[in-house]
Amino acid sequence: MDGCAQMCKCFLILFNILFALVGFGLVALGMWLRFGAETRGFFDIDLKTTQFNIGVMVLVVTGVLMLLVAIIGDCGACSHSKSALSVFSGLLFVLIIIEITAGVMAFMWSGRVADELVNFYNTIYAQYLNTRSPGQAVTLKLFHNAFDCCGIGGPIEVFVRDTCPDGNVLQKLTYSSCPGVIKNVFASHAPLVLGGFLGMAGIMTLALVCSFVLRRHVSPYYVSPRSYVLLTSSPSVVFPPPADQQI
């Protein structure tokens, strides 16, 4: 194996280790969002939360798929298995297509996603004013801490002040209205999200190229070491002649 193939092998091993860590993180995040005490309010609210269930399922399935791809890739790189590298290349190519598609869709539909999230926030806000449900309070706190905002009124908000981020009196007077902040965040960060998706797709493409290089250099020449069985002859046993033949 030449130096290029050896570098590709090292890169694939490191890439798959990091890929597995990211996949494990996605699975853990999905489980926390679904079963965590702080986020259970998303699913206990009297509202159609199908999109959040789908989002959590996508996180978990994506994380499991990344773990599977990383395990297959490491096995192929370490054992020089042609079949494992082929499966790894196919799965990684599918993930690259999904990554690019998701980035483009997130960039193109950022305004629509922001509008849906604002409508969801407004609905939770209105329900909390009527019911004061603990689950809705947890959901509002998550929104307020994530976007550093407070209610619909911002600095003059008086109805949900107990769910706003902690701070002194001056900080509470500078909080902005959450619907406007949500739209601004999605509008300003859409190019960064697209760049992140495309950057990740570029790294995955490099790993795909390294997989092809390693497979081309290893499969024709690499032969697994032969197994040898040590054969030992059992010692022969000499039996004495019968008594009647002894002289």
UniProtKB/TrEMBL annotation:
The keyword Cytoplasm does not apply. It is found in: Cell membrane; Membrane; Secreted, Extracellular exosome. Keywords: Cell adhesion, Cell membrane, Disulfide bond, Fertilization, Glycoprotein, Lipoprotein, Membrane, Palmitate, Secreted, Transmembrane, Transmembrane helix. One of its GO terms (biological process) is single fertilization. GO terms for cellular component: extracellular region; plasma membrane. It is a multi-pass membrane protein. The chain crosses the membrane at residues 12-32, 52-72, 84-109, 192-214. The keyword Membrane applies. Disulfide bonds join 150-164. PANTHER family: TETRASPANIN, TETRASPANIN-1. Structural component of specialized membrane microdomains known as tetraspanin-enriched microdomains (TERMs), which act as platforms for receptor clustering and signaling. Participates thereby in diverse biological functions such as cell signal transduction, adhesion, migration and protein trafficking. Regulates neuronal differentiation in response to NGF by facilitating NGF-mediated activation of NTRK1/TRKA receptor tyrosine kinase and subsequent downstream signaling pathways. Plays a role in the inhibition of TNFalpha-induced apoptosis. Interacts with SLC19A2. Interacts with NTRK1/TRKA. Belongs to the tetraspanin (TM4SF) family. This is Tetraspanin. It comes from Cyprinus carpio (Common carp). The lineage of its organism: Eukaryota, Metazoa, Chordata, Craniata, Vertebrata.
